[in-house]
């Protein structure tokens, strides 16, 4: 399927119909384990002499189809799925890093990721320098001898900053560290970070890829482009004490990180995706290209409409000519800028809470990327644990309202916001 384009891969990649009983839809293999032919077969699977399924914490045929499909739509050589986007990020970093290592990260990250990097990983001896990603040179300036990764979101949630991925990738290449890009908000239907120099792409599948707000999931897609033998990652070149003395890079080459995520990451941390959730997420992935087009069209029209309302103080959407990220959006997101819009009402903090309380179609909840429209006031909810300065660097002001614009009729969405404004 690798020669096919995105919309075709989203529907077909990874599903060998004949090998799956002629099934047109991807089947759910709801099983924890797999019967070995005999003890020698089992021994060969454990020692990687043969590849096959052992236990669903490591892999599963339904999950495998999702993995191959995600690798195809992102342009990677392999992918591994997890129980949530957070499980993907945590396992991805812990599989790569050890105490004493350092990360350079954009300061505008999803609040949960920011907390992982700023509070939890330091407890394990892994520290992060957060930089203003609008100047790519800040990444180079923050590099230390022990830096082992760059981490960014291609389209920050909720700052909606579009990053100059190619400029940051050039700095990660010079520093000889992997460039990790969370591409959740942009989705592979609008942006492929690997084409712009990312070595590792991460997704919360819970959002646009699943698309219907039914199932948590996460994924890591490996570009297969990073040189793990550059001397900075001995766990990839020395015999692994955790896996039969396996020398990952010598044995698995470009696929080293993908296998390490399965053999050590999933084995040791256990954040496996349930096959039923993999099936639900596959249903979403199949229609992602058409849905994201509608999300993007609705978001742009709503952002323009908000700009024209007297009550509205400011609007942020990378597709707007007024956005300071519009030039980068034209380069990196030419086919649409996804469905998140933020704005402030002239009534400030209190007005923001009233709007979030009074909308009828927009649901007040802590998620993005559902087909249905969603609303939240981050300052009092998702980002309440950050102090004012941290909120500001994450792009959150007291008056900010985040909309995840769904695919309902756009006139109904405008009317819903208008009636909420009238309640202030
Ligand atoms: C950009 C981004 N990355 C990662 C996550 C975490 O994903 P999950 O909620 O599936 O754990 C989120 C969740 O909101 C997110 O917005």
The chain-level structural class is alpha/beta
Helix and strand string, N-terminal first?
HHHEHEHEHEHEEEHHHHEHEHEEHEH
Q: Kindly state the percentage of residues in helix.
A: 25-40%
CATH superfamily of the largest domain: Type I PLP-dependent aspartate aminotransferase-like (Major domain)
Radius of gyration: 22 Å
Number of strands: 12
Overall pLDDT: 96
What is bound: which ligands?
A: pyridoxal-5'-phosphate
DSSP strand (E) fraction? 5-15%
Span of the ends, CA to CA: 53 Å
Short précis:
The protein is α/β, with parallel strands linked by helices and 424 residues long.
Detailed description of the structure:
The protein has 424 residues and is α/β, with parallel strands linked by helices. The chain has two domains: 6-276, Aspartate Aminotransferase, domain 2 (3-Layer(aba) Sandwich), CATH 3.40.640.10; 288-422, Aspartate Aminotransferase, domain 1 (Alpha-Beta Complex), CATH 3.90.1150.10. It is built from 15 helices and twelve strands. A seven-stranded mixed β-sheet has the order 1-7-6-5-4-2-3, with helices on both faces. Strand 4 (147-153), helix 7 and strand 5 form a beta-alpha-beta unit. Helix 1 runs antiparallel to helix 11, helix 3 (61-74) packs parallel to helix 11 and helix 13 (348-358) crosses helix 15 (410-422). The longest helix is centred in the last third of the chain and has 33 residues, at 275-307. The relative contact order is 0.13. The mean pLDDT is 96. It comes from Jejuia pallidilutea. This is O-acetylhomoserine sulfhydrylase. GO terms for molecular function: cystathionine gamma-synthase activity; cysteine synthase activity; O-acetylhomoserine aminocarboxypropyltransferase activity; pyridoxal phosphate binding.
